[in-house]
User: Fold Acyclic terpene utilisation N-terminal domain-containing protein from Planifilum fulgidum.
Amino acid sequence: MAKKQQLRILCPNGHLGFAPTKEESFFIGAATRPDYYCCDSGSDDIGPAPLGADKSVGMYEWQKHDLELMLVKAREQGVPMIIGSAGDTGSNSRVDLYVQIIKDLAKEHRLPKFKLAYFYSEVDKAYIKKKMEAGVVIEGLDGRSPLTLEDLEKTDRIVAVAGVHPYIRALEMGADVIIGGRSSDCAVFAAPAIWEGFPEDLAYYLGKVLECASFCAEPYGAKETVIGTITHEDVKVTAMHPKQRCTVASVAGHAMYERSNPYYEYVAGGMLDMTHCRYEQYDEKTCRITGSKFIPTEGKIKVKLEGSGKVGEKYIGIAGIRDPYMIRNIDRVVEWAAGQVRETFQGVDYHLDFKIYGKNGVMGELEPVKEIRSHELCVVVEGVAPTKKLAEEITLMGTRQLFYARLPEVKGTAGTAAFVVDEVLPATAAYRWTMNHVIPVDDPMELFQVKMIEVGGDE
Assistant:
């Protein structure tokens, strides 16, 4: 293909479907006719429960809303649309959900035929076990030990985190719309830039700056559209909301947040080095970035694996406390309640947690508080056990025993001391991350197979 001098990618939302995309800035961006519409739809920030339970955390209506905005404009303009980590987790069922939504929207809007590519990210435990038995070490990330067969057996669902490779393969196949399984956030945006011939050094930074959409702009405003422009020399990012700007401070701050080393970030297939990035104010709403570098992984390619395993069923209880004496002695109150549960359920495998909100106006504390100045506390009680009945019983007892705490200097009833919810609420089952590891592969496409179908037209 002819070498392009620049490529413009519209990102409408930092997490598609988590909350609805704001339409005003989206349509402002769409009116500039970008080359691609791309959006990430997943994260491990939401915890292990959605993956383990195989569900979305975003409402179906929100997901459809965001996909509809992108699909209609992308097809109207005849440019590709790319979605990564479908349905929050990128599991197979979430990919199928998004594929079906695209089919439904194509029919609803009577869109002409187009090519829809998709790929799955789930990995079978038998595949991992076979690798381990053959001597392959599945290395842990963030201080974790290598994967053990015991942790593998405790895992309910595994997804591999794709890099740019399946997206590039889909573009090579002529895809108009791509629905991806679990993916590196950067990959969704870096892939089309790399496929169009732009440098990896800049393409991965483009992905980094676009992945959270308007989080890289100021003043703060989520779910607003930004457009990233890549050339062979730089990356520029522009806010579409009339009152937002992408500034040196907002873009650099976003690029370096939430990491122990703010100048490096692991991306699938390598490391993004931002040590020598230079940020300049290009115009009122645009920041220009140069100097980023992508460092490929040496040796075998390693693919990240995320695994979730069920711990037990969960219930939630809520208690409000206003009595000054109980508030001053809240730690004793909580210990009394926990002790009563321990006494009653000896030998039972359970977990009980009390989260105290309102100590001096904040949630909990980092250090012991000598004097609690709050006039009211909220205690959230979380109980986890092997069965729903047992989880409900443990949580209910833990919550009600707050009311019955035996404190010194209390004479007679403490009936006005606390209001305790008389029922507890069922919650999503408790899960834990069993896998945050990397597996070496001979081929970056080893865990991903791209499929293509035709959608629209007379379907």
Remarks:
- Residues 226 and 239 are 5 Å apart (CA to CA).
- The radius of gyration is 25 Å.
- The chain has two domains: 7-121+162-300+442-455, 311-433.
- The mean pLDDT is 91.
